[in-house]
Amino acid sequence: MYGATKDDIYAYALSKTLAKVSSPATVGLYSSCQNRINMILGKMEVYMNKEAVRIEKEYKGRPRSVKPSFTGFLALIGRLLFYRPIWTEENQRHQDIRFIYVHFSAWHFAGSDLLWAGLAIRLFQAMQLNFGKLQLVLYRVVQHDEEDEIKKKIVENGPSSWRSKKICCCPLWFLVLSILVVPIIIMVFLLTFGLPKPEVKPDEGVDGTDGQVGMLEGLAIAALGVPAASALRFIYLMVKNLIFSQDLNIKKGMDNQQISSQLGFMNEVRKEMWLLSRFIQFMEIFERRRIRVVLKITSLDRCSPKKIVAVLEAINILLSDEESPFISILAVNPDVLVQKVNFADSCFSKEDRAYALLNRIVTLGYTVPPLCSDSKCSLFYSLTSNSKFSVDKGMGKDEDRTMDHEETSSSDGGEVHIPLEDLNPLLGKTTTSLDVNENEVEMLVESALTCNKRKINKYMLDDAMSMRRVINSIRVTVIIMKALKQELPQPENIAAWVVLANQWPCRLSWIIQCVEDAQQRADIDRKNAANTDGSKTLWNVFSESRAELYVMSAQIEDLLEQDGDPELFERFLAVDFRFTINDLKTFEVATVNLDHTIKKELAKIRGTSRLKDSGWMRDLAPLPITTIIKMDTEDVCRELERMKYPSKYIDIVKSNDLNGSALLFGNADDLKELLGMTFGEWATFKLHFLGLPSHLRSQYRNMPLTPSHLSHNHLLRNNAHFPHHYSSNPNLLDS
Question: Residue 723 carries which DSSP code?
């Protein structure tokens, strides 16, 4: 008997949230492991279908069957031919929902210069498969009107959802029926009673009868000519659209460089996407349920930077219509994606960089937390037992099968592939049913969004996209914590934590990394007291380490640019919401709106500086920034004694109160003059306390620094928490 794993819970929480979010929506599903992304996408489909069934049973709606009977098919054809839908308050509030899943592997279209057009082709193919090519073509011929795009959508208040098409105040169905039935009645009458035989005068012969028959034929042609011409035109358009489908037209446009290079090509594709949206809205009224198209975009991080940016912009342009029924799931490795987007040719300004671009598009950032110890153990045991490793398995196979065999890494080098079925401990052995009470979730979400309103509103950005991210993230957080059967904090604290992760991702990631490092150090040193010290506030954690973060600021410029106002951050944690380390541990497992790659980058830079305090250069190598900042005057004196410096230098340190911060941020020339050391003594002192000489720094650098990274203006933007009289010591930027 297997219980629900955390990955089951993450997939379940995402499915419950997507059933509630308003479309259009773009979900950023972030994880460095492609297998976990594929697994969560597969589990998500199962839970979303279950959610749709649950909603249908709960609300006891009367939606039509997804696969209609023959009579249902005839009813749909009749609605398409003779009626137009009416948007009413009732049919705009349908609770029942149907999900259509479309998988778009960007890697399959990577050879095309217009990767975004491949996305449109995939959607057209999926719609034809789900609704039928005949229905889609029939809608295009008899229902679609391009002028409707500029018309305002009017929602009426009435019982009927359909209005008959009319010609000269006559219903079209009645007119067509008359055209079909009346000639039949006339023919039956003529065949039954025959043509009337008028009296023929002897001098007229038979010309009178021929003239009468000709007159009747003329009347018949005049009566049936216009309908016949309309019918022929209708048949011609139907055959044309059935043979030359729109996805074929887009392919031809992609192949024709003269057409694809025109500015209007994307606009033409956008119009076709709008047609798909209107068709789905038509089917919503016919089926009496909401229809949401879930577009799963995978392997985008394997494409070139230019094509990645083009797809992200296409999502924003093609699928962002207010009435669009599309929910896009961007399933990528965020670290690879960010690096490639920042490397793109069009990345000139701050708004063009990866994080800003994603923030303009993504309405719900969903980062899959790392595997817990139990999941790692189960996965390792499964891989050890099965030993099924295959290189490049599944490449070139059918697209649907790539879900089982895609790479575990998005890098370009050769990787060992792990078939998805080897992840059994993380997949389908779950027998425990996940069932979170929907009413309780809605009450908690509403309470989190409304209670303590004055405090939360001060920290919200004034754009709708950011607000939607916060609302959706609160829902996900509540569902995960309920599914994990955790004791829920106060609703306002849940909302505050989501806002904290949304507004200050870099600073919060830094706090989490500092707490994690302190816990690991306590475990190594076997200091159990530190393990239980959970009452320490997060603001105190940040205050103790913010000088170290400041010194690293040149290396993490892109990360710091994501954060909001530093003063508001201080007020948030120091005054309004005094979160502690215990609170951090409570929320950490459910914090899916925080990108974990930020914390990894901070850990890498911080860990690199600590390497200098180990090994054969322990007595000579520069001390870690963390160690120097925390040193008081006595600590500096003890370090000088350990290095066997003469006592006169120790006396100078004491008399001038030279602590670690003074050494770091003071002027090196002034310090040299104050101490009065010999050249050899000063060289050793400078190396140990102030960092490596310039010709040795490069081998210890975590990343190369560009002139923009050393911008004085940037340092001014990020030193709000530090005394302004400190000078920037260039030796410290690379430490």
Answer: -
Locate all alpha helices (DSSP H) within 451-537, ordered by sequence.
453-457, 464-483, 491-503, 505-525, 528-531
- How many whole angstroms separate alpha carbon 115 and alpha carbon 408? 23
| Range of weakest confidence among 53-67, 161-175, 688-702 | 688-702
Q: What are phi and psi of 415, to 5 degrees?
A: -125, 155
Residue with tokens 């779950």: 430
Amino acid at site 617: M
Mean pLDDT, rounded, for 317-322: 75
Give the contacts of 419 (CB within 8 A, at least 6 positions apart).
Answer: 388, 390, 393, 394, 404, 405
DSSP conformation letters of 267-301: HHHHHHHHHHHHHHHHHHHHHTSEEEEEEEEESGG
Mean pLDDT of the chain, nearest integer: 75
- Give 326's strand partners: 293
Write down the pLDDT at residue 292. 92
559-582 confidence digits (pLDDT tens)? 888 888 888 999 999 988 899 999
- Whether 448 contacts 494, CB under 8 Å: yes
Dihedral of alpha carbons 501, 502, 503, 504, sign:
positive
Instruction: Kindly tell me if the per-residue pLDDT of 556 is higher than 90.
Output: no
pLDDT of residue 694: 41
Higher-confidence position of 350 and 411? 350
How far apart are the C-alpha atoms of 341 and 346, rounded to whole Å? 9
CA dist list (Å): 337 to 355, 510, 597, 609: 10, 21, 11, 26
Residue with the larger pLDDT of the pair 430 and 672: 672
Query: Going by C-beta distance under 8 Å and a sequence separation of 6 or more, which residues neighbour residue 198?
Result: 208, 209, 212
CA separation for the pair 122, 581 (Å, rounded): 47
Q: Is the link from the previous residue into 198 a cis peptide, with omega within 30 of 0? A: no
Q: Is the pLDDT of residue 696 over 80?
A: no
Q: What percent of the chain has pLDDT over 70?
A: 69
User: CA 273 to CA 609: how far, in whole Å?
Assistant: 51
* pTM for this entry: 0.71
Q: What backbone torsions phi and psi does residue 200 show, to the nearest 5 degrees?
A: -115, 125
725: tokens are 């009289």
As given in the structure block, the two tokens for residue 259 are: 């057409």
Residue 38's contacts (CB-CB under 8 Å, 6 or more residues apart) are: 298, 331, 403, 404, 406, 420
CA distance linking residue 630 with residue 636, whole number of Å: 10
Q: Which helix (H) or strand (E) holds 101?
A: strand 97-105
Q: Which amino acid is at 155?
A: V
Query: Which own/partner contact pairs does 646-649 have at CB distance under 8 Å and 24+ positions apart?
Result: 649/675, 649/677, 649/681
User: 504: pLDDT confidence band, cut at 50, 70 and 90?
Assistant: very high
Residues in contact with 50: Cβ distance below 8 Å, sequence separation at least 6, in sequence order: 15
pLDDT at residue 425, rounded to an integer: 42
Closest-CA residue to 511 (of 439, 438, 602): 602
Query: Distances from the Cα of 650 to the Cαs of 6, 171, 534, in angstroms?
Result: 56, 102, 38
User: Which of the two residues, 529 and 129, has the higher pLDDT score?
Assistant: 129
**Residue-level pLDDT at 704:** 38
Please enumerate in sequence order all residues whose Cβ is within 8 A of that of 94, keeping only pairs 6 or more positions apart, or say none: 61, 63, 284, 288, 289, 290
d(CA 449, CA 465): 16
Q: DSSP for 632-686, please give it.
A: -HHHHHHHHHHTT--HHHHHHHHHTT--HHHHHHS-HHHHHHHHT--HHHHHHHH
The secondary structure of residue 28, as a DSSP letter, is E
